[in-house]
Amino acid sequence: MEHLITELKKEHKYLLEVIEKLSQMPINSNQGQAILSQTKETLLKHLKKEEEFLYPTLRGKAKEDTALQKILETFGKELEKLSSVIMDYYNNYLGTKKDIDADAFRKDTIKIMVALKDRIYKEELILFKYYKNTVIL
């Protein structure tokens, strides 16, 4: 199960690298749209993997650990908000034919990147630690 954590961390790193690259690209270009689409697809696959493999184990452990239960509730609420912001971002910029203000796109992309970095930091510091202690021990 250590493999899952290693895989998720690699995906985290990849997502942040691609989003940073995206922040420096013209979104109206075919390449910019392709990378934006790729980040969305990768992020959705990543979230699905977490939901299928990481969270069930943590939820099982949370039945006997009230601290973890509270952490999962907080993380769940934060993820709902973050998911909404990210989906709005993709809806605003992905597949659009209109002219997009490059500065606004760059600022929005950086906001998404910062929010994801914060989430990733918390996941790796807190959730992955609980997962390792639950599964590996």
Explain the overall architecture.
The chain is an all-alpha fold and 137 residues long. The chain has one domain. The chain contains 4 helices and no strands. The longest helix is centred in the last third of the chain and has 34 residues. The mean pLDDT is 92.
Keywords:
137 residues; mainly alpha; 4 helices; elongated
* SSE-based structural type: mainly alpha
Q: What are the secondary-structure elements, in order, as H or E?
A: HHHH
Shape by Cα distribution: elongated
Mean pLDDT: 92
- In terms of DSSP E residues, the strand content is under 5%
Distance between the termini: 11 Å
Instruction: Count up the helices.
Output: 4
Poorly predicted regions are none
Overview in brief:
The chain has four helices and no strands.
Topology record:
Elements: H1 2-22, H2 30-62, H3 66-93, H4 102-135
